Amino acid sequence: MKDFLKVTKALSDPNRVKILKMLQHKVMCVCEIQVALGIAQPTASKHLKILEEAGMVNSQRDCQWVNYYPADGQDSPYAATLLGNLRHWLEDDEDVRQLIEKIPTIQREEIMCKREAACQQS
Question: How many domains, in total, are found in the chain?
């Protein structure tokens, strides 16, 4: 029951569901997710940690980036089932649709350049 509750609790937050929907369309790093949702970086990291612990997402380091993507569900049959269904759910939700449309305009390199420029100006 513990694994089941982890998965259902992970999906109990709207931002975590939005993160999963975005990751179905693009592998993303924390800074891209942060910008897309308009939340603080620590908040985005916390959401990703909860999703990862529930077996809903995986991550892989690529130089300076940590890329997040949907898990394949091998670690949890509950995660596998819900991830499979979530692929078809909420596609017509207005918030989800706006996020999906926004994804191509969010580029991690530009986010980092803006942050570096802001730091240099301070």
Answer: 1
Chain CA centroid to CA 101, Å:
15
* Residue whose structure tokens are 């709207």: 14
Q: Specify burial of residue 46 (Cβ count, 10 A radius: 0-12, 13-18, 19+).
A: middle
User: Residues with Cβ < 8 Å from 91, sequence gap 6 or more?
Assistant: 97
Show the CA angle centred on residue 103, arms to residues 78 and 40, nearest 5°. 75
Q: What is the CATH number of the domain that holds 50?
A: 1.10.10.10
Rounded Cα distance, 61 and 67, in Å:
6
Q: Give per-residue pLDDT as tens, 17-53.
A: 999 999 999 999 999 999 999 999 999 999 999 999 9
Strands (E), 63-115: 65-70
Distance CA 100, CA 97 (A): 5
β-bridge partners, 76: none
* pLDDT above 80 for 75: yes
17: containing domain: 2-121
